[in-house]
């Protein structure tokens, strides 16, 4: 009986002096995001914010700041979409500006209290293109692009934004310069950290809808 009491007391004392794991502590973060043209941000499998301007809006180049709470480690998921009128991948269909659009996205996440940057977009992020068009760029002059332009569309993988998802078969994102993306409007309103890079898939024009992932340990 005495031995049992001793073991219980020892366990209680151990629990009292064991520090709380910092990885389990909720932290407030702010994320700055700019996308050509639309995005949704996921943290640890949960959507915490999205572009306030619908993807159906042409020439939407606003920036968005999102505040959220989460615990380390962070699994960051981003959906990036370039504007397209339909699966042809073209813009301004039927006008003299009919063209293949291009995309681009940039993000930085800070701890709200300290201002410490904990993640930025760069070529270490994983990416999966789930809609690509047109695969035959000559269709840009077509009078019926829905018929003439070829495209690929993949289903969104189940649980793609969760920490348990395996993305090792995804490609690495590509970094692009400000001139290549053609930044404007909301992009110029944010003080971007020098490590925050504009990223997209293998092709700025053909890749229209993409999924991005990155993990932050918090150490």
Overview of this structure, please?
This protein is mainly beta and 219 residues long. It has one domain (27-216): Jelly Rolls. It is built from 3 helices and 15 strands. The strands form 4 sheets. Strands 2, 3, 5, 10, 11, 12 and 15 form a 7-stranded antiparallel beta sheet that branches. Residues 4-9 and 11-22 have low confidence and may be disordered.
Total individual domains:
1
Biggest beta sheet attributes: 7 strands, antiparallel
Identify the overall geometry: globular
- Provide the CATH architecture: Sandwich
Q: Assign the CATH topology.
A: Jelly Rolls
**The CATH C-level class name:** Mainly Beta
Number of helices: 3
Strand and helix order: HEEEEEEEEEEHEEEHEE
Helix content: 10-25%
Termini separation? 44 Å
Class from helix and strand fractions = mainly beta
Low-pLDDT stretches are 4-9, 11-22
**Secondary structure tally: strands:** 15
Strand content: 35-45%
Q: Mean pLDDT, as a whole number?
A: 90
Q: What is the radius of gyration computed over CA atoms, rounded to a whole number of angstroms?
A: 22 Å
Descriptive tags:
four-stranded antiparallel β-sheet; 219 residues; Jelly Rolls; mainly beta; 11% helix; 37% strand
Quick structural gist:
Helices cover 11% and strands 37% of the residues. The protein has 219 residues and is mainly beta. Strands 2, 3, 5, 10, 11, 12 and 15 form a seven-stranded antiparallel β-sheet that branches. Strands 4-1-8-9 form a four-stranded antiparallel β-sheet, with no helix packed on it.
